């Protein structure tokens, strides 16, 4: 698919780092739109649309507030700048702890990758159990990018059980029951991104998927050999 | 083993709920002591001794601070009182959310059980890899209660791998790498208590051990059947 790619005016202080572009199909009629594929979810499930946009384009927030915890959320492509350039935006990386720096840098991704991640997540959401049905134009758009959509076929990246769209609504203290996940290795691009149950994501922790599967396989072997 | 069981004077506001008693062997010489089995760890690894005492006798703290989050930590046997009695101690259960109440009540345990839990945890700690060697009198005391001690034989309750005493030192933001765990069902008594890796405890989450093993077994089956 060829995108329109016209530059969309932005007042963001970070606009000079990466232009915001139109991702309607080239030659489209009507207004330019950075996230045309999210328009239907924006109307039917705005919190899900916001989550997709946020997870696709922003780093995750610091788990606690303190001087050295780093920014709560920042555009992923801003984190591709080097330390000197970041200083111009008021972010002094030298004040952060090595672990925080590594975490922020790991989440860096270029603008185009982030847009495709958002589209891929949208494609996955529409294939969850109990998901709304996409309008034909959005279905066509997403299938052109990522292939045919099969209702109910989106699995948790980690436990491989079907994900239910209704889990987006179950939130405990701001924590959704479905989280955006990265497969192994943890790079932020459309191939590598998916959704997982929150409990699965927590269980996986810092392990890669392969490490996680080996780990739990070892547990099962020890448990079965003893009892 | 028969304990001395003499009452030890206490200034705690909760002393009238349960007497603090001496758990030296009956007929002992020297001063009475509520936790005689912890004396050696108190000298060689005070933070571990404190952790054992705390986890054995106190409820865990609320994860966040707010009016309805409940007390940060409270003696487990205090949580056995009914709501009216708790009100006398300034704890208004009716102000707490049902989930918080359930969590607090689940952690209730009588004084004698808590003491035996502390002794059992001490017995387990001495059998961890790289643990200090207990003096003969404490070894005798603990073996009389729970059986022969085999150095290096204490396993993580969850993943069944040996636990290393040195993991007590690895703490990230106050979180020890070894946590006190309860087997299935989650009752606070000497039979049911053990240690686990923090990452294992997190992975287990709210599941019972049986549920956890079934869950990860299902994951392994799905992963293996697909690849």
TrEMBL record, chains A, B:
InterPro entries: DraIII-like. It comes from the Bacteria. This is Uncharacterized protein. It comes from [Ruminococcus] lactaris.
């Amino acid at each position: 698919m060829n995108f329109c790619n016209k530059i969309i005016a932005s007042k963001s202080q970070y606009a000079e780092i990466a232009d915001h572009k139109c991702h309607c199909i080239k030659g489209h009629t009507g207004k330019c739109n950075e996230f045309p594929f999210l328009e239907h979810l924006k109307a039917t499930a705005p919190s899900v649309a916001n989550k997709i946009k946020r997870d696709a384009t922003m780093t995750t927030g610091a788990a606690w507030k303190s001087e050295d915890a780093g920014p709560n959320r920042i555009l992923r492509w801003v984190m591709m700048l080097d330390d000197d350039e970041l200083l111009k935006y008021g972010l002094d990386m030298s004040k952060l702890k090595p672990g925080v720096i590594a975490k922020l840098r790991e989440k860096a991704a270029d603008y185009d990758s982030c847009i495709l991640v958002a589209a891929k997540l949208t494609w996955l959401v529409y294939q969850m159990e109990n998901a709304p049905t996409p309008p034909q134009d959005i279905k066509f758009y997403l299938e052109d990018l990522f292939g045919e959509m099969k209702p109910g076929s989106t699995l948790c990246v980690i436990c491989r059980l079907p994900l239910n769209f209704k889990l987006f609504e179950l939130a405990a203290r701001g924590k959704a029951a479905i989280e955006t996940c990265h497969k192994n290795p943890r790079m932020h691009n459309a191939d590598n991104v998916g959704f997982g149950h929150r409990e699965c994501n927590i269980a996986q922790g810092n392990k890669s998927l392969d490490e996680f599967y080996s780990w739990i396989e070892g547990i099962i072997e020890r448990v079965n050999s003893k009892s």
